[in-house]
Amino acid sequence: MRKLLLFALLSVATFASAQEEKFVIRGTMTSTRLCYSDETVKEVKLEHMVDGQPVVIATAPVVDNKFILEGTAPESVGLYSITGFDNGSLQVFLEEGEIEVYPFDAAYPVAAKIGGTPCNDTYQAYLDLNNRCVQESKERMKKTLESIPEEVKGNPEAESRYSSPTFYVNNMHFKVAIMDFIYENINSPVVLYVIKYAMVPTFTTETIKGFLRAVPEELHKQSMYRELMNDMLAADLKEGSEAPDISGRTPDGKEVSLSDFRGKYVFIDFWASWCAPCRREIPFLKEALAYSEKSDNLVVFSYSIDNNMEDWVNCIEKSQLVHKNWMHVSVLKGWNSDGIRLFGVKGVPHTVLIDPDGNVVQFGLRGEEMVKKLKGIVDGANK
C-alpha cells in the first residue's frame, strides 16, 4: 500500500513538474482581415530567431477569431514573434504559464496588448511607458512649434533655437523614465531587452555597464545578458581591459566558452584551415605547448573562422594539432563569427593573450616572441 501511495505521489509530482514547463498563448482578434489585402489570417506561427534565421516553434489555426499556441517553455526566457500577418508581427516573452494576447486587429498586430505571465506583464508595462513618453514628447514639441513667432517661421536655423531645447528635454525625460523602469524591474529578464533596445542607442557604454552589473546574478545566465556584456566589453577592448566571453563547438560537438578556463592564462588564436600564415605559426604553437606539458596554467584556444566542418577537422588531424592544453572551437560562420566581431579581428592569424582573471594581456603575439612569452608563463607557474 505504501509503495502504491508513494508511486501515486511521485506521479502527481512528475505531472505537476511537466505542467509547469508548458506555455499556452491564447489570442483573440477583433478582425482577422489583413492590412494590405482582403484576405484573412488563417494560421499563426510562433517563431524565434536562431543564427539570424526564423525557426518555427509552434503553429495554430485561427478559429472564430481565436488561436491557441502551446508547447514546452524554453529554459531561458526570450522574446518570440507571433507571425502570419502582412503588417508586422506581435512579440511575447516565452515563459511557462498562460500568456494572453488581448483582443486586437489583425491589420495592426504591433498594437496588440499582452499579459498573463510575469515577464509579459512587465513587457506590456514597458510598452505602455514608451507610448506615453512618445505622446508626451509630441505634445511638448507641438506647444513649442506653436509658440514660435511668425517672423521666425520658415527659417530652419532660427526655428531650431526653439525646437532644439525641447528635443533635449524630451530626450532627458525618456532617459529618466527608462532608468526608473529598469530600477523598479531589475529582477526581470525584460530589463535586459530594455537595456538593449532603449539604452544602447543613446546611453554611454559605461552607464550601460553599470546597469548590467546591477542586475541580479541569476540573470547572468540569460543569453541576452552575455550578448550585452560582450558588446560593451568589445566597445572598449584594450590591453588591461576585460575580454568578451566567446564560445564555439569542438570537432566532437561540445560547446566550450572562453570563461570555462578562468583561472588560467588563455592564448586565443584566431585562424583558418585555408590561411597559409596561420599554418606557418603551427610549429611555434607546438613548441610552446610541448613546453607546457607538465603545466596546467596555460590553454591555447584556437578559434577557427572556417565555414566548412570537414576542412577544419581535416586540417587539425593532418597537421596533428593535438595537445592536452590545446582547445579547438568554431561556429563555422567564417567572417560572421561572433568572436571576429567582438575582438575586432580584421585578418588572421590574430592572437590575444588573456590572464587568469579574464583580462587582455597582449595582442598580436606571434613566432618566437609568442613562444618566449608562453614559456615565461609556464616557468612562472612551475616555480
The helix-strand sequence is: HEEEEEEEEHHHHHEEEHHEHEHEEH
Q: CATH class of the largest domain, please?
A: Alpha Beta
Strand content: 15-25%
The helix fraction, in percent, is 40-55%
The tally of structural domains comes to 3
Query: Which consecutive residue ranges, at least 5 long each, have pLDDT under 50?
Result: 1-19
Q: Count the DSSP helices.
A: 11
Number of strands: 15
* Sequence of strands across the biggest β-sheet: 13-12-11-14-15
* CATH overall fold name of the largest domain: Glutaredoxin
| CATH-defined superfamily of the largest domain | Glutaredoxin
User: What would you call the quaternary organization?
Assistant: single chain
User: Distance between the terminal alpha carbons, to the nearest Å?
Assistant: 66 Å
Computed Rg: 27 Å
Q: Class by helix and strand content?
A: alpha+beta
Largest sheet: 5 strands, mixed
> What is the mean pLDDT?
93
